[in-house]
Structures are given as structure tokens and as C-alpha cells.
Design brief:
By secondary structure, the chain is of the alpha/beta class. It has 19 helices and nine strands. The strands form three sheets. It has a five-stranded mixed sheet with strand order 4-3-5-9-6, covered by helices on one side.
């Protein structure tokens, strides 16, 4: 963490030719404290959704440092696949979680690490606001709007690479603006490194690189003396290509970032993904405030173009609010700048912060309940039977996958091996497992879970992690299905 602190100190010290502002410091410490107050009670939250995939990547990178996705895993398809075949996210996702080995991959350590990344992202967002010439009040407001955004709080409760990606984006954009203002090579090199790390965390952030590149080319075109503006973008592109080539799965049966993206494409002609994008933007980010208080800002074109990053994700097999994290710094900066001229700016900021924090806590609580049930199901339905000498299989994914394997169960796959009479299968109805389970002759012997209505993030109406479930980030209703079931294989 020493290197991170050095970078933050450089950001604070490298003021450059910024507009003069009056008032107190724009440092967003209140925002960081708010994020910590919300997230610290959830340190013991169980792993959820795609956390097991990235944890397995992090474990593998300790064995094979140059090839994070060079391992097999049963995930989503109910088949043994190379992780490189279905992981388009980027290799950096594994490296940012590798420090968890020191704490034995425990939940509290993972969530604490994400809180650190989130805190850095908040500070970097405020610093970027300063680069765009916002007042100290607006800088602090940008930090608060970032810290209280429901999408940020919800994703900070996971180990997925979206929070680190947002951190790298905010750091990269701050350094890029510093580069355009000061022409210091240290700023340009750091901008390239951070932008490359962002893309290597979430590969769809290539759109951001294209946007920044277009802006840099325009700057160079209109002023030949600023031809070097484009250098960080070119350097970032070279770094991305080099890292992807070096970390590519060497196994001939493996995939690449390009093939993994192709595997996940699922063009939606019904407009559902576009509707999900709109709902998520309005409910989980302060975009509405940014639009309603729109105010000229130089160079505002770069900020508004930044908001286009999630649009291509509509071609993905699903859409989720997490893809808005990539534009949250820009939304927060635009909203804070617009609110700065409103007479009742303090009151509106308090209202937005309170509303966002409330929804964020509801999302975290619902996710903690869902993930905690999966962890408890593995402890109750799997571990005792494994310890009693039974062979136990599991059908399910998300956080349940992590805890089922830790309890001693093996995944039920369509490519074998297969269960025999007397074996036990524990299945999850929450994540809709398919594959071999419906074909296995079995008898229900035990269930676990509650069908009572409660806050949900993945249900008929809620789809915080995927709009294939619901369009709202949170909903009050019964969970999907009866929860978890233990079956005895009869023949």
C-alpha cells in the first residue's frame, strides 16, 4: 500500500495551473468516513454472485503468476471449462485480490480490501473534480455523491473487479488531466498505467480509452504544440496488448479475451437491456441530478462522452448496475458542479446522500441475507454428510459454489463423472441451475431456506447483478424458489 499512498501524495502535491478557488479544502474525508460507516458492519458478509470465480483466479495467480485464468472450473455452463473461455474481465482482477492469501481468503479481509480500494476511488474522484476546476465545495460533493451511490455501495460489498476498475479509472483520468495541464512526464506515465489497469480489470473499458484517445487527438490537432497529449493513450494501448499477450492461457484448449467476449455476447432486440440501463442510471447513481443541473464545464465534452461507456454493454448477454461504476466519477463530478450554483445546494446534497445511502444499505442487507443463506446451506446440508462419509454433489453457482466446495462437495456436471445410488445432491433454486439435475432420479430429503418476503437483489423484480432476473436494483418480495434442497440419488 506504500506505492498507493505515494501516488495519492503525488496527486495532492502536483497542483499545476488549476483555477483559483476559495473556501475550505476539497478533500472528501467525510465521504470516506461515510463509506466506512456503511460497509464496516458488512465485513463478515458471505461471498456472493461471481466472487468465487475471481477468488479462484487469485488463488491460481499465486501458483501461476503470469497466467491467472489458466485453470478449469465448472461455472454457469455445468461443464468443466478453462476459465479463459468464459472470463472476459481481464487479468488484473486476480492480482488485486491476491493479498487475501495472507488472511486465508477470509470474508472480512476481502471486504476490508474492497473498502480500501473504494476509499482511494473516492479521493481520486474528488481530485479529478479539482482537475476540472470545481470549487472545494463541489469537490467534497463529488466525493459524497460517489460514496453514497447505491451501485458503489452494493458492489463494494463484493469481491468483483468493478470497484478496483473504478479506482483505476478515477486515478487514470486525474493523471491524464494533470498531464494535459502540466505536461509532466510522471503524470503522463501514471495516466497510461492507470488507464491500462482499468481496461485490464474490465475489458469493456476499451471504450474509455477510445474516448480519451479521441479527446487527445483533438487537442493535438488544434494545437501542434500539444501533439504529446496523445502519448499516454498510445502507451496505455501498448501496455494492454502486452499484458494480454503475456497473461494469455498457454493451454491450446483455452480462450482469449476476444473469444471470451464473443462467448458472452447476446444481442437483445427487445430493448430490455436499454431499459435496465435507464432504470439503473436513475436509481443507483446521481445521473438525474447531473442532467437537471447541467452547467457548462471545461472540458465538459470529455465528461459527457465518458458517460457513453456502458452503452455498448447492451450487446452483452446481460446488463447490471455494476457497469455504471465505470462512469460514476464523471456523473458525480457533473452533478456536483451543477449543484454548486443551486441556492439550496446543501439541502439537496444531504437529500441525495441520504437517499443513496439508504438504498445502498438495503442492497447490501438483501445481498448479505442471500449470500449468508448459501453459506449456511453448505454448512448444514453438505458438511455433516461429507463428514459422515457420503459423497455429496452440488448444483448451483454464485457464492454457494465457494462454500459447497469448501464443505467437500463436488460440482454436478453434464460431462461426468456422475452420481450413483446413495449419493447426495444439494441444489440451489436461487440461481436457477440447469444441466444434469432434472435427469437424475432422486428423492427430496431436506430443504433449507425461507420463502418469507424480504428485501431481494435477485428475484422476479430485482436484478442488481443481472437484468435477466429483474429490472429493479432492489425489491421486497419472496425469494426465488424454496432455497436449497438435499436429494438422495435413488438409482
Amino acid at each position: 500500500m506504500a506505492s498507493v499512498s505515494n501516488v495519492l501524495e503525488a496527486i495532492a502535491a502536483d497542483s499545476g495551473p488549476l483555477p483559483r478557488t476559495r473556501g475550505r479544502s476539497g478533500q472528501p474525508w467525510i465521504a470516506v468516513i461515510l463509506a466506512a460507516m456503511v460497509l464496516l458492519p458488512f465485513l463478515g458478509k458471505a461471498y456472493t454472485i461471481d466472487d468465487p470465480v475471481f477468488l479462484r483466479e487469485a488463488q491460481n495467480v499465486l501458483l501461476n503468476p503470469l497466467h491467472p485464468s489458466a485453470f478449469e472450473m465448472v461455472w454457469a455452463s455445468e461443464r468443466h471449462l478453462r476459465a479463459s473461455e468464459f472470463l472476459p474481465g481481464g487479468p488484473v482482477a486476480a492480482y488485486v485480490l491476491a493479498p487475501l492469501v495472507v488472511a486465508g481468503w477470509q470474508e472480512w479481509a476481502g471486504h476490508l480490501l474492497m473498502l480500501v480500494y473504494f476509499g482511494i476511488a473516492i479521493v481520486a474522484t474528488a481530485a479529478t473534480a479539482r482537475r476540472f476546476g470545481l470549487s472545494p465545495w463541489a469537490q467534497r460533493a463529488a466525493g459524497l455523491l460517489t460514496a453514497s451511490a447505491p451501485v458503489a455501495l452494493g458492489m463494494a460489498g463484493t469481491l468483483m473487479p468493478d470497484i478496483p476498475a473504478m479506482m483505476f479509472i478515477a486515478l487514470g483520468m486525474e493523471r491524464f488531466m494533470a498531464w494535459t495541464q502540466t505536461h509532466r512526464w510522471s503524470a503522463g506515465v501514471l495516466a497510461a498505467v492507470f488507464l491500462a489497469l482499468a481496461v485490464l480489470s474490465r475489458i469493456n473499458l476499451l471504450v474509455l480509452l477510445a474516448i480519451v484517445g479521441y479527446y487527445a487527438v483533438r487537442q493535438s490537432w488544434f494545437s501542434r504544440r500539444e501533439w504529446h497529449t496523445v502519448v499516454p493513450v498510445v502507451l496505455a494501448g501498448g501496455l494492454i496488448l502486452a499484458v494480454l499477450l503475456v497473461t494469455r492461457d498457454p493451454d491450446v484448449t483455452g480462450g482469449t479475451a476476444v473469444s471470451a467476449i464473443g462467448r458472452q455476447l447476446g444481442f437483445d432486440f427487445s430493448g430490455r437491456h436499454a431499459i435496465a440501463l435507464l432504470i439503473a442510471s436513475v436509481t443507483t447513481t446521481p445521473l438525474l441530478a447531473a442532467v437537471l443541473t447541467r452547467r457548462r464545464l471545461e472540458p465538459s465534452a470529455l465528461l459527457w462522452a465518458w458517460l457513453l461507456i456502458p452503452v455498448p454493454v447492451i450487446a452483452y448477454v446481460q446488463f447490471a448496475p455494476k457497469y455504471l461504476l465505470q462512469v460514476l466519477p464523471a456523473i458525480a463530478i457533473l452533478a456536483a458542479h451543477g449543484l454548486d450554483r443551486v441556492a439550496s445546494r446543501e439541502r439537496i446534497l444531504v437529500l441525495l446522500t441520504a437517499a443513496g445511502t439508504t438504498l445502498g444499505i438495503l442492497i447490501l442487507s438483501a445481498d448479505a441475507r442471500m449470500a449468508g443463506t448459501a453459506r449456511a446451506a453448505a454448512a448444514r446440508l453438505i458438511r455433516p454428510r461429507v463428514e459422515a462419509g457420503h459423497r455429496v454433489w452440488f448444483a448451483g453457482h454464485w457464492g454457494f459454489h465457494w462454500y459447497a466446495e469448501a464443505a467437500g462437495a463436488v460440482p454436478l456436471t453434464i460431462d461426468g463423472p456422475f452420481p450413483v445410488a446413495g449419493d447426495i445432491i444439494v441444489s440451489s433454486s436461487v440461481d436457477r441451475p440447469v444441466g444434469l439435475l432434472p435427469l437424475v432420479p432422486r428423492t427430496l430429503i431436506e430443504t433449507f431456506g425461507s420463502a418469507e418476503p424480504s428485501g431481494q437483489v435477485m428475484s422476479r423484480h430485482a436484478g442488481f447483478y443481472s437484468d435477466l432476473w429483474g429490472l429493479s436494483p432492489w425489491w421486497w418480495e419472496p425469494p426465488l424458489g424454496p432455497g436449497f434442497q438435499a436429494w438422495l440419488v435413488t438409482r
